[in-house]
Design goal:
By secondary structure, the chain is of the alpha+beta class. The chain is built from eight helices and 13 strands.
């Protein structure tokens, strides 16, 4: 069977043979994309005359190669990829056009919390703020509804186009994230609360909301609680008293290894929140 490199080359060369003539002004383009916790090879179809923020679905060739490996039918894989492009190009997301002004999207800036060590290359090109072994990055929300969420990462150029400095960007994102991704608390048991939001997206960033952390502490009737980062999308809070820290670390290690998708892993650490001073600190971690 062909390897990933040859597969990528053949798909790029042949994909237009599977697209209708209406898309003949589109050209296949390959880009290496630094995503949270991973690097992907993305195939896009872009029109000849495109604005820098023209949207195209990104088909990640690593995922398509896995599909091809199951059936070893290249024609079927190419038809599948073409259908992805046709579906998205027929129903484009409402994204920036030529007159797009990022200043108009200041109320759509949100933040996401990610692992610093796992995303060093990505963070080199993004405004970010360090929080223990984690980092806050920023996104502009283009669409956020029951059909899906589309965002643009805020890099230095986008921040400048918005007319913001780092302090202003963070302040806006803190406010907007609370509104767009309003935290929701789910009771797992009398001594365990999970936090995410109705979209189940970027929910772990809620550890940055002091009022939420205070509420969790009050509901758990404790001044000190452990915070378990299940993924970038949610976390669990439990009282420190009566909880075995080593067991939590083992549980987190098992979850990250066997259950959480690689792109969703947030941390290898359990954190401690102290309501007396409102501070979050690292309690223990695994390697």
């Amino acid at each position: 069977m062909m390897d990933q490199g040859l597969f990528n080359q053949i798909v790029t060369e042949r994909i237009m043979d599977y697209m209708p003539p209406i898309y003949e002004d589109h050209k296949p383009t390959i880009e290496t994309v630094n995503k949270v916790n991973e690097v992907k090879t993305a195939l896009m179809l872009l029109p000849d005359n495109r604005h820098p923020y023209t949207a195209s679905p990104m088909v990640y060739l690593e995922d398509m190669y896995e599909l091809f490996a199951q059936e070893e039918d290249l024609d079927e894989t190419l038809r599948f990829i073409a259908n992805i492009f046709m579906n998205h190009l027929r129903n484009p997301v409402n994204v920036p056009d030529a007159d797009f002004d990022f200043k108009d999207y200041r109320n759509k800036v949100v933040m996401q919390i990610i692992n610093t060590e796992r995303n060093e290359e990505l963070l080199e090109n993004l405004p970010h703020r360090q929080v223990m072994n984690l980092s806050l990055i920023y996104r502009v929300v283009i669409r956020c509804n029951d059909e899906g969420i589309n965002t643009i990462l805020v890099n230095e150029a986008v921040m400048q186009e918005m007319g913001l400095d780092m302090r202003q960007l963070h302040s806006l994102a803190l406010k907007n994230t609370k509104e767009i991704f309003e935290p929701e608390i789910y009771e797992l048991s009398a001594k365990a609360l999970m936090v995410s939001n109705k979209y189940q997206t970027f929910g772990a960033v809620s550890i940055m909301f002091e009022d939420l952390m205070e509420e969790l502490s009050e509901r758990l009737e404790t001044s000190q609680m452990y915070v378990i980062p299940c993924s970038v999308h949610e976390f669990i809070a439990v009282p420190m008293q009566g909880t075995d820290l080593e067991s939590l670390v083992a549980m987190l290690a098992e979850g990250n290894r066997d259950f959480t998708r690689q792109q969703d892993i947030l941390s290898n650490a359990i954190y401690l929140y102290d309501a007396k001073d409102g501070k979050l600190s690292k309690a223990a971690s695994y390697r």
